[in-house]
Design a protein that fits this description.
470 residues, alpha/beta, three-stranded parallel beta sheet, 16 strands, 35% helix, 14% strand, disordered N terminus
Length: 470
């Protein structure tokens, strides 16, 4: 493994250009730089700053349009707030209890010729992994079974069984993979106009605080972690976010608490109660999906099908590997994309693979997805048309590893006075009571003048709301 410290720093300009934003608005962004936040060999802090800055600028742009402001509010990106938010699942406390993050079998394993990383947080994924290995539910037994197999053998066998395991690759090895080539051909943010639906009419919004997504109905069909981060951000900005899950696929409790702020949570079996689901779709302004590409198409959730039934809708999709190429239909998570794309090799040592200081691919992609939705709504208010936006963790990883810029114009943002070291997350943590218990949580880093400082409601117990709009 090669230890490389990249000098390429993706900035707000890259993200904003990828979102189709007006580059003349970039001077509205200022940054409070805090050395020590999200330290890594790769420019993780810069990527995180760019994703949050792009999202905040998209929110400020829409807020100005809806509130009739003469200019777009100023955006302030604080590295401390960004670092705290990118670790939100780590800083969560429920009645003082720390969260359960990775399960014992979600980790790196030595194989006969290298390393693999598995993801077994969900019971059904753990069961499939153990079945392939013929091992007991024990770290020692799994380790022994792994050591007898090659990395690629484990990767393919576990995938075929519906589990999750990815072989460690260097950046060079990943670049030679067909999936990496397909990812590289795509822009950081895929944006498409689907039809010629009439321009969206946006009602004026209050200015105390400015919530630019107020009145938008967002149907949240996402899981782990980028999609829920995006919809959590839209909820902060005023959207009515209704997360819908299948009754037989319960969400991990702490993960639901971390990403459920501002949302409602309902259960619906789409194979049975299609009428109720169609009623939700008929009044949704935005549909966000985070399942494997194509997995929900049979329910009429392909972008074109949605636009035909609900002209003027914004369809947003996020996946691990992208909706194309030989891995387009595979499941994946941030930790696994890090392993495949060469990030784990770059952040590791000669003895062992490493990892980014946060699940930065998930969080960064989540903020970019929220920004893409906000920009789509702004564009609809001017030009009309149903809109489709799509992102992939693997594409965000390529941006990080290779420093890919969306345009020749780069902008790092102004540096605000009062720069200081990052001394921990405490200034950006808050507490609230909820139906889940007393919560300590990270505040959103999406900040602009006049914007909201916190969510309007805490998370609710999983599946505790009716499947209907306010």
């Amino acid at each position: 493994m090669t230890a490389i410290k990249s000098s390429i720093k993706p900035g707000v300009g890259s993200a904003w250009s990828a979102l189709g934003g007006d580059l003349s608005l970039l001077p509205r962004v200022s940054t409070v730089v805090r050395e020590g936040a999200l330290e890594a060999r790769l420019p993780v802090r810069e990527l995180a700053r760019a994703c949050v800055g792009g999202c905040a600028l998209a929110a400020a742009e829409l807020a100005a349009r809806r509130a009739g402001l003469a200019e777009v509010p100023e955006v302030r990106v604080d590295d401390g707030a960004v670092a705290a938010a990118f670790h939100s699942e780590r800083w969560l406390r429920v009645d003082g209890r720390p969260p359960v993050t990775f399960a014992p079998l979600s980790r790196f394993w030595r194989t006969s010729d290298g390393w693999v990383r598995t993801h077994a947080n969900y019971p059904h994924h753990r069961k499939r992994l153990l079945a392939v290995l013929g091992a007991a539910d024990d770290v020692g037994a799994v380790g022994a079974a792994m050591a007898e197999r090659s990395s690629l053998e484990v990767e393919e066998a576990v995938y075929e069984a519906g589990g999750l395991a990815v072989a460690l690759r260097t950046p060079k090895e990943w670049a030679a993979h067909r999936q990496a080539a397909e990812v590289a051909r795509r822009p950081l943010v895929e944006r498409e106009r689907l039809d010629s639906a009439h321009a969206r009419v946006l009602a004026p919004i209050d200015t105390t605080p400015l919530r630019p997504a107020a009145g938008l109905r967002v149907l949240d069909l996402t899981r782990v972690l980028a999609g829920p981060v995006a919809t959590r951000t839209l909820a902060l900005l005023g959207a009515d976010v209704l997360r819908v899950d299948a009754p037989g696929l319960p969400e991990l409790t702490d993960q639901h608490a971390d990403t459920g702020f501002g949302k409602r949570s309902a259960l619906l079996d789409l194979t049975i109660d299609r009428r109720r689901f169609e009623e939700l779709l008929a009044e949704a302004d935005v549909v966000v999906t985070g399942y494997r590409p194509g997995a929900l198409d049979r329910f009429g959730l392909a972008p074109e099908a949605l636009a035909e039934r609900r002209p003027g809708v914004v369809v947003a999709q996020v996946s691990a590997w992208g909706a194309y190429g030989p891995w387009g239909g595979r499941r994946g998570f941030d930790s696994l994309v890090q392993v495949a794309s060469g990030i784990a090799a770059l952040e590791g040592s000669a003895r062992r693979p490493g990892a980014l200081p946060a699940q930065a691919l998930d969080h960064g992609t989540g903020y970019l997805l929220a920004a893409a939705v906000l920009r789509a709504v702004t564009e609809q208010s001017r030009e009309g048309g149903s809109r489709f936006v799509r992102l992939a963790l693997a594409r965000t990883a390529a941006w990080l590893v290779n420093g890919v810029k969306a345009s020749g114009t780069e902008h790092m943002g102004k540096h605000a006075p009062g720069e200081a070291p990052y001394d921990g997350p405490e200034p950006w943590l808050a507490e609230t009571g909820s139906g889940l218990g007393q919560l300590r949580y990270a505040l959103s880093p999406v900040s602009f003048a006049g914007g909201p400082g916190d969510w309007g409601r805490p998370p609710v117990p999983w599946g505790s709301d009716p499947a209907r709009w306010f």
